[in-house]
Amino acid sequence: MKLLLLSILAFILGSLPTGLIVARVKGIDLKNVGSGNIGATNVLRTTGRLPALITLIGDFSKGVIAVLIARYLGTGIFFEGIVGLFAILGHDFSLFLNFRGGKGVATSLGVLTIYSPQTGLFAIIIWLMTVLITRYSSLGALVSFGLLPIGALALDSRVKVPVIFLMTVLIFLRHMDNISRLLKGTESKIGAS
């Protein structure tokens, strides 16, 4: 029962559309500008650096808070990850946006920062390196999360690998349009309007 309630709470927390709220304060409807996505990359393109940073911190914090609450309540290592997954699912399929949402990268990194810090740092480094070289945020996410299960096997407990693998699957499912655009050469780079 505790795990069910925590999972529901994490889903509701994850559902809070940080980017949409931040952009709306500036008078912008994020769903109708740029890529239409509610994440920090679209906020950066359409609203500016500070709103994008606030969005990134907000989305990241949703994952951190969900796992910290699960840890505080003593759910155990594996179930901390499950609660974190529900925060990611909430972000991806928001209750407040008719079960539409973001890509889940920042929220996933927030979950990883508490659930598997070494693996989270590994993902952030790979993402940064990929983005600095290519300027594609989506490619950074795909490469870093594609390598994530290998990083988890090398750097952390095998108990955490199934949850981390599911994070990778979610990231790839949410980036199918980006994969198509990357293959066609039509994906927008960071810094492009």
Explain this structure.
The chain is an all-alpha fold. It has one domain (2-184). The protein is built from eleven helices and no strands. Helix 4 (49-72) packs antiparallel against helix 5 and helix 8 runs antiparallel to helix 10 (161-174). The N and C termini lie far apart (47 Å). The model has no long low-confidence stretch (mean pLDDT 93).
How is the secondary structure organized here?
Blueprint: H1 2-15, H2 18-25, H3 40-46, H4 49-72, H5 77-92, H6 105-115, H7 117-134, H8 137-146, H9 148-155, H10 161-174, H11 176-184
Helix pairs in contact: 1-4, 1-5, 2-4, 3-4, 4-5, 4-6, 5-6, 5-10, 6-7, 7-8, 7-9, 8-10, 9-10
In brief, what are we looking at here?
The chain has one domain (2-184). The protein contains 11 helices and no strands.
> What global shape is seen?
globular
Number of strands: 0
Radius of gyration: 16 Å
Strand content: under 5%
Distance between the termini: 47 Å
Key terms for this structure?
193 residues; mainly alpha; 11 helices; 72% helix
